[in-house]
Write a structure and sequence with these properties.
Order of helices and strands: HHHEEEEEHEHEEEHEEEEHEHEEEH
Helix content: 25-40%
Distance between the termini: 46 Å
Structural class: alpha/beta
Radius of gyration: 25 Å
Length: 427
């Protein structure tokens, strides 16, 4: 009897949630569910193509797969090439134009952090709820969410009057140098009203109304080369490595408690001779324990929520670098990367839409997550021009690492949510 009552309660709950969807929206959900085997097959296909940022052919090959899928549902597609000197594959753009609803800009990226010289992991189902593979959640899974949502709308004739641009960049993980890298991306985003990005979902109930920006810095320190027995003497000083250590520790003491601000020294080399290859992010050093190092180099990143926070941190870092231990000197340079995506009322309105759609589907509430828990993303380039929401892609674990996974149970739910959000925005 108890089991019967429980089943009845669950059935009533489901029926109550279903009543919040229109008949058209129920058809969209049915189309998503019916197409999920094909969606997973597409995900497997693109995961099994290595598309590390510097594997230009691989990035283009993944782009070609998605291009054919967009062509099949009536989008006009093009490949935006980058200058040969940039050593980047370019971007895939798929567009269709209509006269109803908001103009949407949907963001994905074709590249992964897994370059050709890294061990390769194919798409593999670990069990009925988990699969693994390179870029399966960051962000080939998110790309498939975009496409699967649009396919469901197309199957029900709901794209005819919509204005949608799907923009898949080819170098999100290692952005090409120079304004050309995102010029077309920004220009097309400015034509839209709303930008939705499908980077990894933190979980089913969290979206991103803000993301931190990212920039890089390089510290170089110099000392007096001498026999190690003379270290700390007034005529010799402390050497380049001690000066680098002082600066890094002062960075930590001065700046590490500020909310949303992080700075990480990712690579450090020091010795008699130091060579740092920026393109390969590798350092080579020659040195001996009985020689005081005359040079040291440290490279790192700086993450921040707003431009004001970034500039204030740089000012403090420059002041620390200028102090110097005896017989040493130091210099620091900064390179801009991705800007920050600050929280806005418009962004929160989109989060409210995601929450309503999720509740109507019976999936529960959705709320804006902590900006400090996410890194930088392409959406930040356009956040100053349009209302934005991110974290709409697949859920999973271990992004950027061997063993990266996707949650297959939540995969169709996230496609359904995306499809209904796009549908409601384009009415």
């Amino acid at each position: 009897m108890k089991k019967l009552l429980l089943a009845s309660a669950l059935l009533f709950c489901f029926a109550a949630q279903a009543q919040k969807l229109t008949s058209t929206e129920r058809k969209i959900v049915a189309s998503v569910q019916q197409n999920m085997p094909q969606s997973e097959k597409l995900l497997e296909e693109v995961v099994n193509i290595n598309s590390g940022t510097l594997n230009l052919k691989g990035v283009r090959d993944v782009g070609t797969v998605f291009q054919k899928e967009f062509d099949a549902i009536g989008f006009k597609t093009e490949w935006v090439a980058m200058p040969e000197t940039m050593n980047r594959a370019g971007h895939l753009v798929a567009q269709r134009k209509g006269k109803k609803g908001k103009k949407l800009f949907l963001i994905g990226h074709l590249d992964t952090v897994f370059e050709l010289d890294m061990p390769f992991t194919k798409y593999t189902r670990l069990n009925d709820s988990t699969a693994t593979g390179q870029g399966v959640n960051d962000m080939k899974g998110g790309n498939v969410v975009i496409l699967a949502a649009l396919q469901a709308l197309h199957a029900n004739g709901l794209l005819k009057d919509a204005t949608i641009t799907a923009y898949f960049t080819g170098d999100e993980e290692r952005g090409g140098k120079g304004p050309e890298s995102r010029a077309d991306f920004i220009a097309k985003a400015k034509e839209a009203d709303v930008a939705l990005a499908f980077e990894t979902a933190t979980n089913l109930h969290t979206v991103a109304t803000a993301r931190r920006g990212s920039s890089t810095w390089q510290l170089k320190t110099y000392g007096t080369a001498a026999h190690s027995s003379g270290i700390f003497k007034p005529t010799v000083g402390y050497g380049a490595i001690y000066e680098a250590a002082r600066i890094l520790n002062s960075f930590r003491e001065t700046l590490s408690k500020e909310q949303y601000l992080t700075f990480n020294p990712g690579l450090m080399v020091g010795g008699s001779e130091v060579n740092y290859d920026e393109a390969k992010a590798r350092g080579e050093v020659v040195g001996k324990t009985n020689i005081i190092a005359p040079t040291a180099s440290v490279t790192g990143d700086l993450r921040f929520l707003t431009e004001e926070q970034k500039e204030a941190a740089r000012t403090k870092m420059r002041a620390i670098v200028a102090e110097n231990l005896p017989q040493t000197r130091a210099e620091i340079t900064f390179t801009d990367g991705l800007p920050g995506m600050a929280p806005t009322a418009g962004n929160q309105k989109l989060a409210t839409l995601a929450d309503q759609v999720s509740r109507d589907l019976g999936f529960g509430p959705v709320a804006a997550g902590d900006p400090g828990s996410r890194g930088a993303g392409d959406i930040s380039y356009v956040a100053q021009y349009v209302d934005c929401l991110d974290g709409l892609g697949v859920s999973g674990k271990g992004a950027h690492a061997a063993g990266e996974t996707i949650n297959l149970k939540e995969f169709p739910m996230l496609v359904e949510r995306a499809a209904l959000m796009i549908y409601r925005l384009t009415r």
